[in-house]
Amino acid sequence: MKPADRVQRVPPSGIRRFFELAEEMDDIISLGVGEPDFAAPWAARDAAITSLEQGKTSYTANRGRRDLREAIATDVKKRYDLSYDPDDEIVVTAGASEGIDLAFRALVNPGDTVAVAQPCYVSYVPGVIFADGDVCSVPTRKEDEFKLTPEVLAEHGADDAEMLVMCYPNNPTGATMTEDELQAVADFAIEHDLTVLSDEIYSELSYEHDHTSIATLPGMRERTVVFNGFSKAYAMTGLRLGYVLAPAEVSAAINRIHQYTMLSAPTTAQFAALEALESCDGEVVEMREEYNRRRNLVLSRFEEMGIDCFRAKGAFYAFPECPWDDAEAFAEALLEETGVAVVPGDAFGEGGEGHLRVSYATGFDELETALDRIESFIE
Amino acid sequence: MSREDVLAVLSDNARYSTEDIARQLDMEPEAVESTIEELEEAGVIKGYKAVIDRSKLDEEPVRAAVELNVTLDRETSYDDISSRLAQFPMVESLHLVSGDFDFMMQVEGDSMREVSQFISNKVAPVPEITQTVTHYVMDAYKEQGITFGDGHDDDRLSISP
């Protein structure tokens, strides 16, 4: 018995080795975590518990509970001016990750090319490969503050691709894009007939301007699939709940794969999510304000240390230039000598070399201690 | 806006240094210092105190919540009664509240005897006070937004994408 070729085509995870190193050590402070340090709002957890007490443990409709889809439609309209029909344009998925995989499988024909804006979340490239597509890497540049531009798209041949995957606010760089900057990408997508997969899971964590969804720009709705969910805004990563917004025909295709692979997203999590949308706006604001204060702290401390770091405006990551040429060697030495874990930028693809992803989804005191240790380490 | 921001950070942790607050709010340390001074002078900030889980102390003080009913007359207002009560050092907090009674008073003393004597000797005899109901505190779970107990460990994966 032997794994299929497509599995072997996926390179091993760059994060995995680091994870194993960190797991061997006691008492580390990790700035390498890609999820909130908060627990989900209590009201959402309480709703999940209540649903279990009431025995709500069966499947839901394939697309997710109707009341949840309605609440999602209302929420994305209110926050981002996105209009999607809860009946045939929304699919609730087991995390945004499932949605991204479904979209690749629903939209990529063998041999299609998918341009992937990098550095990026680790699952896009494998997702394309699992769908038998070809990846066209589009590394964004530090001088553009890791925003995607028509220039880098053209330079790396994305005009010949069928599809483009992008994520803003971005993991791992913390970059965000304004409406005008997105418009330039939208113009490129329309000119070259690209379908756009837009992962907007960090949309509520934008600190200096409101989040704009590229799907709201003229001519984009019909060629865009939007992914969002509850993991980041509501600190519900372990509940595995996301959703896909897409025009009806594509939404039906995504739902067809979803119904045969997942059947429906976790029921308990759907109850938590509904409550989150109905009553947890206050917690979302509080968490955002707390992240923003930590962001300011991290950026000022890096500046004081003489570490070159662009002003990341979203998510909960800073993406400084590594003080050493070899970011992997730096991260390994930092971990071994000070017990502080950060992730080398190249674990997130092209364009990340020579950088470090520093997550500030960590309590304030630990963050301060970690920054003190980094400071003495580089001296 | 900076007033609210500084207050938000101090409400979270009043022991942050000026430099720390400045970094978190992207302000100059001098501006933070002067904002805090203004807030203190304006009486917005009344003081800075630690939140203590008294059950962890060697000698745990005795605390009670006391409901007070009062009758007002032409010469006596709520302010008169409250200023009389608030001056006793054993009174930790005093609020005028809506509902079945008028004042909610928190009292702290070294022993149940001390608290009881305070209520019967100093509080109950006040002419306008018509009734007192004393509830001794048996256990504390949360104070000033801080939940007591051991908290929970960070059980996230140490590195994740």
Description:
The complex is a heterodimer of chains A (379) and B (161). Chain A is an alpha/beta fold and 379 residues long. Chain A folds into 2 domains: 5-40 and 282-378, Aspartate Aminotransferase, domain 1 (Alpha-Beta Complex); 57-278, Type I PLP-dependent aspartate aminotransferase-like (Major domain) (Aspartate Aminotransferase, domain 2, 3-Layer(aba) Sandwich), CATH 3.40.640.10. Chain A has helices at residues 5-8, 14-23, 42-53, 66-80, 95-107, 124-130, 150-155, 179-191, 248-261, 267-279, 281-305, 327-338, 364-378, and strands at residues 29-30, 90-93, 113-118, 134-139, 163-167, 195-199, 224-229, 242-245, 317-318, 340-341, 343-344, 356-359. In chain A, the strands form 3 sheets. Chain A has a 7-stranded mixed sheet with strand order 2-8-7-6-5-3-4, with helices on both faces. A 3-stranded antiparallel sheet of chain A has the order 9-12-11, with helices on one face. Chain B has helices spanning 2-12, 18-25, 29-41, 78-86, 112-123; strands at residues 62-70, 91-96, 103-109, 129-136, 142-143, 146-147. Chain B folds into 2 domains: 2-41, Arc Repressor Mutant, subunit A, CATH 1.10.10; 54-138, Alpha-Beta Plaits (2-Layer Sandwich), CATH 3.30.70. Helix content of chain B is 33%, strand content 21%. The model of chain B has no long low-confidence stretch (mean pLDDT 94). In chain B, β5 and β6 form a beta hairpin. The interface between A and B is medium-sized, with 32 and 17 residues.
